[in-house]
Structure formats: structure tokens, C-alpha cells
Amino acid sequence: MKNISSDIIRGYNDTMILFLLIREPSYGYAISKQIRELSGGKYIIKETTLYSAFNRMEKNGYIESYPGAAENGKKRTYYRITGKGRAYYFEKCEEWKLTKEVLESFTVDVPAG
Question: Residue 23, CB half-sphere, CA atoms under 13 Å: how many?
């Protein structure tokens, strides 16, 4: 398997985005590029998925958007994490640890064929 199915990782898009926003505020293209790079190209988040996550997380109070500009003067929307978003991020990290533990019970030492 070369790439991760978006169905598998969908529940953790928020976690990846929030991880990047904890480091520094950013904008959509830069975030999608960082996700691709940090995953070694194994996961490429679709633009519609990314902006849907931004909208949902902003509605839930996990991130805030604000206007900014690129070096060329073009307008960009930037995002930053909120205190509520930090708490949510750490909850998702704990959930991942538990999920990984459960799934490993069903995936280790399985004979091939």
C-alpha cells in the first residue's frame, strides 16, 4: 500500500491541522503542503477536505481565521489555534493512543495467506 485512504484518516485531519497550528499560525496551502511533507507523501489532503475541516473547527471554536497577505500582496486567510483547540488537540492525541492500542491487538502477528 502506497498511500493512506482518506476514509481511514478522516477522523484525524483535525489533529494534523491543529498540530501544525500549535507550531505557528498558517494558511491552507502551506498546511496541505506540510501534511504531505510530514507524511512522506503518503497522505495528501484534498482542498475540499481541508477547508471543510477549517470551517468545522472554526465553528467549534478550535481555530480562528484572520486576513493576511502573501509576499505578492494577494489576500490570504490565516488560521490560528485557540485555547479550546489546544485542549481538543490533546484529547485527540489521547484518543489516538487508545485507538492504536486497540487496532494493534487485531493486526500484529497475523499470518499471511
Answer: 10
